[in-house]
Design a protein that fits this description.
The chain has 1 helix and 12 strands. The chain is about 5% helix and about 60% strand. The strands form 2 sheets. It has an 8-stranded antiparallel beta barrel. By secondary structure, the chain is mainly β. It has a single domain, classed as Porin (Beta Barrel).
Amino acid sequence: MKKCFLMMAVLLTATLANAQGHSMGCIVKGGVNFSNMVMGVMPHGMKVGGHVGAEWDYAFSSRFGVGGGLLLNFTGAKFALDQINPVGHYFQRDDGKPIEKDVDYSAIYFNIPVMAKFYITPNLTFDLGPQLGINVQNKFTSDGDKVKKVGRGLETMGADVVAGFTYFVNRRLVLQARYNLSLTKSWNDYEIDDTGTQTTYFNSDDRLQTIQLSVGVRF
């Protein structure tokens, strides 16, 4: 699945590079992120973050166009301590002290969305496509103190599927709402049997999902 979406990104990028349509301009945008993790073994809570970046759009007809961009995304999740049992299997403090507060996870990504844009009206598009992600920072804290994730952390490279809407309020003002779901499994976890002697490592299915609300200015 991930390879399929990576191939889609390459094809859409090639289309952008050889675009024969007309440019719809550059959109400089920013906004808020609501992110958490799904499909995994640990309970997750929503984390509020933000994003900033720019996108470029090309229209090939009154009904179809493509777009690409570069975004800096601040995402993450929250982990409820009272529902992680035992917490030491997943998180540890560097000083060896027990973790007594919920764990907050913060991540920073550079994302490259490559979108197909379907014009519902001249001012409204439905956007769908893959997004490449480069993870540049992972940080876990509990009550302000740094903790570490047991096992391997998030992949440094990943791919998302993105869907949403773009609305051109007027020639300059742009509003966007998008949903991103990671196709990349987050990290390796492990389980210890009842005897405490046998450890089984597995690739957890935890994946980031993000709702993005943006306001932009078109140039």
